[in-house]
Amino acid sequence: MTAQEQDMVARPSALTFDLVARCTTTKARAANLRLPHGQVQLPMFMPVATQASLKGLTPKQLEETSCRLCLNNTYHLGLKPGQKTLDAIGGAHKLQSWPHNILTDSGGFQMVSLLKLAQVTEEGVRFLSPHDGTPMLLTPEHSISLQNSIGSDIMMQLDDVIATTSPDHARIKEAMHRSVRWLDRCIEAHQNPESQNLFCIIQGGLDLDLRRECCREMVARDTPGIAIGGLSGGEAKSEFCKVVDTCTGLLPEHKPRYVMGVGFSEDILVSVALGADMFDCVWPTRTARFGNAITRFGTHNLKNATYAYDFGPVEEGCQCTCCRPPSEGGLGITRAYIHHTAAKETAGAHLLSIHNVHHLLDLMRRAREAIVDQRYPAFLRSYFSGLYAGDKTKYPEWAVEALRGVGVNLLADD
Ligand SMILES: [Zn+2]
């Protein structure tokens, strides 16, 4: 019996993870992840549909970007439409008419970040209702109950999240241990382990010893997938890379690894080289609302006057619905049109969201191909060269260093 089979006997899981290829230089992996609502390919980017809708996009438009796994926020869905409505309609897939996979967060992070008066105790997160100010409590049990009602394919444990930049080491340590205790309560409360996958979340701030201890504790609890949490909160990128690298070194090969809240193209590609598989971020849709187009040659603000008479597509050669010409079934949107609508009409932001989400999904598809073909180091060099117009002096030092650590010299010529 393989280790994977033993795990499946040990604890029910609603996913299968098949490693397709491993980069022989870096720690990058390509895998197939089969979830209750279909198979997805790793590494992958997951767009965030906060209120069961990606800002500005219909589920059909999201599907056309090739997205097969998106995020919903438990906190928002728990408030509106609320658990009763979710139970009545049969979950979030039916609510938004989305036939593909959904991942939900625990709701804890939203509370701590959105509500000023949120307070963490051993019992859970105490907060005042944003509707009427009544005191409320989000416990691990309540978070899991909500996620069971949502019916997400991947659900996240409630964890105690502290900013990595916090100077309070004792509090970071307490939060790590509490997150482990809360995972036990989440596992206990989970009603549907045969149809919904609960992921644990590694905490421990920037303290690598705490991260190592947390990895050991979480891995022993044998959840179907594992997340690395608490990052992307303003810490130095070099510290971020050390945490990801340290954690992936201690995680089992045969489980998906999700680095939460990471979405910049460079951060994702470096994290993939460090052995991570899954990423999410609001960046592609949020930045679209400011008129920013994400391309292979960097992020361009189409509100800039230079685009007023630019009749090329948002990104040359892009196969998204927005950029493809009408003769190929697309909308044939020009930079000039986005320039014209970006500040005035929401349509401009919607079109750019389609492009930006497609761009990141396509970037991951190309990264995966490179891993399978054993040319990921060259892919990284080519990508950074495009992003910085071939000027190696502009490459961020943290990326150069992190990749050097896994055997890639970003500054070498191919
Ligand atoms: Zn496009």
TrEMBL record:
<feature type="domain" description="tRNA-guanine(15) transglycosylase-like">
    <location>
        <begin position="26"/>
        <end position="385"/>
    </location>
</feature>
<keyword id="KW-0963">Cytoplasm</keyword>
<dbReference type="GO" id="GO:0005829">
    <property type="term" value="C:cytosol"/>
</dbReference>
<dbReference type="GO" id="GO:0006400">
    <property type="term" value="P:tRNA modification"/>
</dbReference>
<feature type="active site" description="Nucleophile">
    <location>
        <position position="280"/>
    </location>
</feature>
<dbReference type="Pfam" id="PF01702">
    <property type="entry name" value="TGT"/>
</dbReference>
<feature type="region of interest" description="RNA binding">
    <location>
        <begin position="261"/>
        <end position="267"/>
    </location>
</feature>
<keyword id="KW-0808">Transferase</keyword>
<feature type="binding site">
    <location>
        <position position="323"/>
    </location>
    <ligand>
        <name>Zn(2+)</name>
    </ligand>
</feature>
<feature type="binding site">
    <location>
        <position position="230"/>
    </location>
    <ligand>
        <name>substrate</name>
    </ligand>
</feature>
<comment type="similarity">
    <text>Belongs to the queuine tRNA-ribosyltransferase family.</text>
</comment>
<feature type="binding site">
    <location>
        <position position="159"/>
    </location>
    <ligand>
        <name>substrate</name>
    </ligand>
</feature>
<dbReference type="GO" id="GO:0008479">
    <property type="term" value="F:tRNA-guanosine(34) queuine transglycosylase activity"/>
</dbReference>
<dbReference type="InterPro" id="IPR002616">
    <property type="entry name" value="tRNA_ribo_trans-like"/>
</dbReference>
<feature type="binding site">
    <location>
        <position position="355"/>
    </location>
    <ligand>
        <name>Zn(2+)</name>
    </ligand>
</feature>
<feature type="region of interest" description="RNA binding; important for wobble base 34 recognition">
    <location>
        <begin position="285"/>
        <end position="289"/>
    </location>
</feature>
<keyword id="KW-0479">Metal-binding</keyword>
<keyword id="KW-0819">tRNA processing</keyword>
<dbReference type="GO" id="GO:0046872">
    <property type="term" value="F:metal ion binding"/>
</dbReference>
<feature type="binding site">
    <location>
        <position position="318"/>
    </location>
    <ligand>
        <name>Zn(2+)</name>
    </ligand>
</feature>
<comment type="function">
    <text>Catalytic subunit of the queuine tRNA-ribosyltransferase (TGT) that catalyzes the base-exchange of a guanine (G) residue with queuine (Q) at position 34 (anticodon wobble position) in tRNAs with GU(N) anticodons (tRNA-Asp, -Asn, -His and -Tyr), resulting in the hypermodified nucleoside queuosine (7-(((4,5-cis-dihydroxy-2-cyclopenten-1-yl)amino)methyl)-7-deazaguanosine). Catalysis occurs through a double-displacement mechanism. The nucleophile active site attacks the C1' of nucleotide 34 to detach the guanine base from the RNA, forming a covalent enzyme-RNA intermediate.</text>
</comment>
<feature type="binding site">
    <location>
        <position position="320"/>
    </location>
    <ligand>
        <name>Zn(2+)</name>
    </ligand>
</feature>
<protein>
    <recommendedName>
        <fullName>Queuine tRNA-ribosyltransferase catalytic subunit 1</fullName>
        <ecNumber>2.4.2.64</ecNumber>
    </recommendedName>
</protein>
<keyword id="KW-0328">Glycosyltransferase</keyword>
<feature type="binding site">
    <location>
        <begin position="105"/>
        <end position="109"/>
    </location>
    <ligand>
        <name>substrate</name>
    </ligand>
</feature>
<dbReference type="InterPro" id="IPR036511">
    <property type="entry name" value="TGT-like_sf"/>
</dbReference>
<keyword id="KW-0862">Zinc</keyword>
<feature type="active site" description="Proton acceptor">
    <location>
        <position position="105"/>
    </location>
</feature>
<dbReference type="InterPro" id="IPR004803">
    <property type="entry name" value="TGT"/>
</dbReference>
<feature type="binding site">
    <location>
        <position position="203"/>
    </location>
    <ligand>
        <name>substrate</name>
    </ligand>
</feature>
<comment type="subunit">
    <text>Heterodimer of a catalytic subunit and an accessory subunit.</text>
</comment>
